[in-house]
Every structure is written in C-alpha cells, then in structure tokens.
Design a protein that fits this description.
The complex is a heterodimer of chains A (384) and B (311).
Chain A: H1 28-51, H2 62-89, H3 93-126, H4 140-145, H5 149-180, H6 185-196, H7 203-213, H8 227-234, H9 248-274, H10 278-286, H11 291-302, H12 304-319, H13 323-328, H14 338-348, H15 352-382
Chain B: H1 3-6, H2 15-18, H3 34-62, H4 66-71, H5 74-79, H6 89-96, H7 100-131, H8 137-147, H9 153-166, H10 172-195, H11 200-208, H12 213-224, H13 226-242, H14 245-251, H15 260-270, H16 275-295, H17 297-306
The chains are: A mainly alpha (384), B mainly alpha (311).
C-alpha cells in the first residue's frame, strides 16, 4: 500500500468496460477536451434559459415554468449527459477513457467551483477591503470586529449559543433516548415522533411558535395569551416581556433551536444505544453494577464517538444560526449573533468589507472540523 | 407510520424477547420496582408534553376567531371547547388576502427543481468518483468534503454581485442554481458513500457483458442506489422548503416570487400582533414538511444519519 491518498488512486483499479484502456493519457489535447466536456452541460443549460426570456420573468404562467423547469432540469440534463457520452465514444478509445470521467463529474464540479469555491476566495479578499470594496484596508475590519462593542456582543452571543445549545440538545436527546428505550415499543415510537417532529419545521415556523409562547401584555391590558406569561403570572408574578429581558432573552431564543435539534440528537443517539451489545450490559449487571453504573461505565464509553459527531453537527448548525434571531428580534436588545450580524451589515448598512469579515469569522471557527472531516474520510477510504 | 423513529434494527430486539422468561439473566433494566418504572414514564411524558405544547397551542389558536385568540389563552379553548368560536376564516384570510397561497405555489416551484437538479448532477459525479479513474480524483474529492461545511454566508456577497450583473436576482432559475450549488457537496458525498460500496463483481460482470459506463450507471447504479437517492432527496427538499436566508437573498420579497418562509417572515414584521393570521400562516408553511416527514420518516432518518456531518 502506498501512502494513504484520499481515494485509492492506484491501489486497485476499478473494473473497466470493454475496449476502454486505463486513462493515463495526459496530453494537452486530452486536457482541453476534459475541460470542454465539463463546461458544456452547464453552458447549454444556461444558454437555454437565457434564450427563452419568459423563463426569467417570474410573472409568466407558473405551471408552465415548473413544467419547463422539470422537463429541462431533468430530461434536458439527462439528454445532455447522454449526448456527451455518445460524442466522447466517437473519440479514439484512449482519449475517450481520459475524457469520459470529466463528462460525468464535470458539471457538478463546475457548479461547485462557481457557487462555493470562487465566492469563498472572493469573500476572503473582500474582508480586507473597505465598505464599498474600493480600497484595500488590511486587517482593519477584523480589528473593528474584535474591539467595537456592537460586534463584540454578536461574538459573545454566538459563543454562548455554541456552548449552550449543544449541551441541552445532547443532554435532552440522550435522556429521551435512554428513557424511551425502557418504555413499551408503541409508546416509545409515539414519544420519539413527537420530539422528532420539530425537526421538520422551518426555523421561521418554529420562531412563530415560540413568538406566541413568549407573547407579553403589560398589566391591565387584558389576559395573558402567551403560555409562559400565563404560567408566570399565575404564580403571582408580574408579566415579563421575555424577548427584551437583557441577557436572558438570548436564552429564550436558544430554546427554539434546542426545541428543533433535540430530535436529531435523540434519533442518532438512540440508534447508537441500541447498537451497544447486550452481552456487555448483561455482563456488567451480573457483576452487580447498578443501572446508573452500567449507563456511565458501559453505555456512555461505547457511544462516545457518536456523541462527539452529534455534538459537532449541532455546534456547526448553531454557529451559523440566522433565521431564528432575524425573525424573533432582528438582533435588537443585545441578541445579535455573528451570522445574523453579517447579513445586517451587508444588506442594511451596505458594508461589504465588514460583512465579509464576519463571514470569514464564521468559516475560521469551523475550519478545524473541516480538517477532521477530511482526515476521517481518508481513514475510511483506506479501508474501503 | 409513526413506528419508524422508534423501530429497532432486527439485531437489537427487545431484550426480553431474547431471554427465556424467569431465567436468571433476565434482569429488568431499571429493576422491578413499580416506582422506578413510574418515574421513567413520568419523566418521558413530561418531556414529550413540553415538546408538543408549543405546536399544540399554535394549531388550536389557528382555528379560533381573532377575537377569542386575543381575549383568552388557547388553553381555555381546550378546557371549554364549546364556548370557543371555531372557524376556518383565519386560513381563508391568510391564504388569499395575505398571499400565502401564492407563496405556497412559489415554494413548490422553487423546491422541486432545486431538489431534482442537484441529485442528477451529483449521481453522475458520484459514479465518476467511485468507479472511474482520472487525474486529480482524490484532490477533487477532498475539495468536495471540505465544501460540506463552508458556511453559506461566505458565498453571499460575491454571488449576489454576479447575480445582479447577470440579472439572475429574483428569478427562479437563479435560486434553483444557487440551491443546486449549496446542496451538491452533501449530495455527492452521500451518493459516493453509497455507490462506492456496491459490490465490485457487479461491475466486472456488467462490463464483461459489454456494458459501457453509461449503461452501468443508468441500468445498475441508479436502481440500486434508490435508498440513498431518496434519503438525499428528502433532506434537500425539506432544507430548501424551510430555508429563509437563500430565499431572501436571491429571490427577495416581491409577492410574485416570495417563498412561504419569506412571506411568513414578512407577516411577523408587519402584523406582529395579529395572532389569528400568524398562527394560521405558520401552519400553512408547516403542512408539507410535516406530511413529507411523517410519510417518509425512514428515508429521512437515513438521510440525517448520512448527512450528520454537514453544517
């Protein structure tokens, strides 16, 4: 085995169709054909849409639009792939073998390049420029981010979100996964579905749900119709405007994300718990361990890697949260977070440089996870 | 339908079934105490109720008259169901006057192609990565894995500049392509994981019989990859349907194109205290994902597991 490359390039060759030699052909002409073939599918697609003006006008008949979109988006793409494959087959065998992979993978790679790679590079450059992008300002934007109180509040809040939300999601998720496992099967299924359901709801929808929970009426302006204030006043307290309560309002926003993400943690942890070998648990019990000891000393260590995966996944989601804050408070009353601030900075204040710098902060924090992902993938491939 | 989340792998059947009744080894996990059982049940019920109450309040309120919603809490309607005025007027108003019906259609127009196009492109790419040889293959795949967690926010500023210059802003085509771009890394990743695990012999014998890569892909790989395709399709469908940021940035709030989430967001801003509209409106946005979720839960969970490292 050579050094572990990401995908085994040379280790064992994939099987090949008849008459197709291995593609070691690296002449210039082959490279030109490769790039051309990767470009043709997206280019023809774009050309099609730009030729027919009505497809760009949102006011044309919607049924027609969706019909055309599906016929072209699916049928057309298939036809293009097929046509390109036929074309390539007309080439000499060696060349065809060299070009064909780019017919298959090319369109996806081109779109990824345009929609993710190019913008990422461009944003990093923009973050070093001023508000309208006309001047190079070095790290000024970043200095402002880490010194001015407006941005420090967003940063602080994002960090708190990233700590609090995963703890509660994993905690509740683990608790439900363990406890529900002890219930009769039918009950377990119902309980899990109820907790999992918020996962299907949009953050905007979830925000409205909790907006209603948190509704506030000053005393003397009628009965409290928000559940939280109704309970709170029934206990003899004065009604509270939860979303304006300094600092605490952040926690009320976090509750929404916990509500939607706990189901995810529960489902994945639950399948990990069910995968813990019964013999292991029984052995511990026969040795006289209490249930709590079995849980702590056997179950938890066995599912530790799953917990880490769930934790990081929720952490990334939390770090990028935008919708909840935008809908609930718009970042007012000290609730701003980085992802929301970035959009505000860019759209409301038209400050490209600062907006881009905030986006870069979002990226930098997830970079270690990105690197771990690639490492893990390499290991997985080495054993394929 | 609901049994899916709680269903077990055949290997891990209920412990009781595996062991003979009354045998020494059959230990009840929490002991036999009545009280510990009751405690477990109570804890689970409390959490389940906590998780359902917010939605229940919303659902009940959406069927009450505006007057009732504003004068009493939704729980009074549960306690005194016959003293409340039940009505469908909220839905009628929100669908017509507030434009939620148009937004619903827009969401469909956005979501269906934005799900189907990335699947098609990704399936071809995943096949190439799994079963073809080409220079730069492992590097390019590393890029795909890296792109999995690049925050969307990184792309907004430059993309919007290009979109404004080419006139793609505010068009359905623009948002289809944007969602295609953002969904592709996960699609390629999930499909690659699946397609690369298909048995090698399958391809060898197909090629011996004279199949080309294209036939192997369409006749062999696609039908066999249905579970992975379905898992990604559901994931992407819900993601696009529920998305607010991409819809706001690339489509905007013009009623001709605004999606449900964008419309609901606007409703919160402009009619923040009109609960009869907000509750009904929120439910209109939830109907499709909840139905998809309940009917296709099995694939959804699979997609979640597969995509669990996507940000």
């Amino acid at each position: 085995m050579s050094t572990p490359s990401l995908i085994k390039d040379e280790v064992s060759e994939p099987p090949r169709p008849p008459g197709e030699p291995g593609s070691t052909d690296n002449r210039l002409s082959v490279w030109v054909l490769r790039i051309l073939s990767a470009l043709i599918v997206p280019a023809v697609l774009l050309l099609f849409f730009f030729t027919f003006e009505f497809l760009q006008d949102p006011r044309t008949n919607k049924a027609l639009q969706i019909a055309v979109a599906i016929v072209v988006g699916v049928g057309g793409v298939w036809l293009l792939f097929w046509a390109m494959d036929r074309l390539v087959s007309a080439l000499p065998d060696r060349m065809a073998a060299g070009v064909r992979p780019f017919v298959f993978a090319g369109p996806a790679l081109m779109i990824l390049g345009f929609y993710l790679v190019y913008p990422t590079v461009d944003t990093i450059i923009t973050s070093l420029r001023n508000a309208d992008g006309s001047e190079f300002v070095g790290i000024d934007n970043f200095v402002r981010l880490f010194t001015e109180s407006t941005y420090l509040v967003s940063l602080r809040n994002s960090v708190i979100w990233a700590i609090v939300v995963p703890i509660f999601c994993v905690g509740f998720g683990l608790a439900v996964a363990v406890l529900a496992d002890l219930l009769p099967r039918k009950t377990e299924a119902v309980v899990k579905s109820l907790i999992f359901l918020p996962m299907a709801v949009s953050f905007v929808g979830a925000s409205v749900v909790f907006f209603f929970m948190y509704t506030f009426r000053p005393e003397g302006f009628g009965e409290q119709i928000g559940l939280l204030n109704a309970i709170w006043t029934a206990l003899g307290n004065d009604p509270v405007d939860w979303l304006r309560l300094p600092f605490w309002n952040n926690l009320f926003l976090m509750a929404i994300l916990v509500w939607t993400q706990t189901g995810f943690a529960m489902v994945i942890l639950s399948s990990a718990i069910k995968g813990v070998p019964d013999e292991l648990l029984e052995a511990a019990r026969i040795d006289g361990a209490t249930e709590w000891q079995v849980f702590r000393k056997v179950t938890i260590p066995t599912i530790a890697s799953t917990i880490v995966v769930v934790w990081t996944t929720i952490l990334i989601t939390t770090w990028k949260v935008y919708d909840i804050v935008a809908v609930m408070t718009g970042g007012r009353d000290g609730t701003s977070v980085v992802a929301e601030r970035m959009v505000t900075e860019f759209y409301t204040f038209r400050n490209e440089g600062l907006g881009a710098a905030l986006a870069v902060v979002l990226l930098v924090v997830v970079l270690p996870i990105l690197i771990i992902n690639i490492r893990r993938f390499q290991e997985q491939e080495a054993t394929r | 339908m609901t049994a899916e989340v709680g269903s077990r792998e055949p290997k891990a059947r209920r412990r009781d079934d595996l062991l003979p009744r009354g045998s020494v080894a059959r230990l009840d996990p929490v002991g036999t105490s009545f009280w510990s059982r009751a405690l477990v049940r109570a804890a689970v019920v409390v959490i389940a109720v906590m998780w359902s109450l917010p939605t229940a309040g919303l659902l009940i309120s959406s069927f009450r008259s505006a007057n009732d919603i504003n004068s009493t809490g939704w729980w009074t309607a549960l306690l005194h169901p016959f003293e409340t005025t039940w009505t469908l007027a909220n839905y009628e108003q929100v669908l017509t006057a507030s434009g939620m019906f148009d937004a619903f259609v827009n969401s469909l127009i956005v979501t269906v192609p934005a799900t189907v196009i990335p699947i098609t492109l990704a399936a071809f790419a995943a096949y190439a990565f799994a079963w073809m040889q080409f220079p730069g293959r492992s590097f390019l795949f590393a890029v795909v894995v890296a792109l999995l967690i690049v925050p969307l926010q990184m792309t907004l500023v430059p993309l919007l500049q290009v979109y404004n210059r080419t006139g793609l802003t505010g068009t359905f085509l623009g948002i289809w392509l944007a969602h295609t771009g953002f969904g592709l890394p996960l699609a390629v990743y999930i499909l690659y994981n699946y397609i690369s695990q298909l048995p090698r012999d399958l391809f060898e014998s197909a090629f011996i019989d004279g199949a080309s890569h294209f036939t192997a892909f369409t006749r062999l790989v696609l039908p066999l990859s249905m579970p992975a395709l379905a898992a990604f399709a559901i994931f992407q469908f819900l993601w696009v349907w529920n998305d607010l940021l991409v819809a706001l940035v690339f489509l905007g709030t013009d009623s001709a194109v605004a999606t449900l989430t964008a419309r609901l967001n606007e409703l919160v801003g402009s009619r923040g205290q009109d609960w009869h509209l907000l509750t009904a409106g929120a439910f209109v946005t939830m109907v499709v994902p909840v139905v998809v979720f309940l009917s296709l839960q099995r694939f959804f969970v699979r997609g979640l597991l597969a995509g669990s490292m996507k940000g």
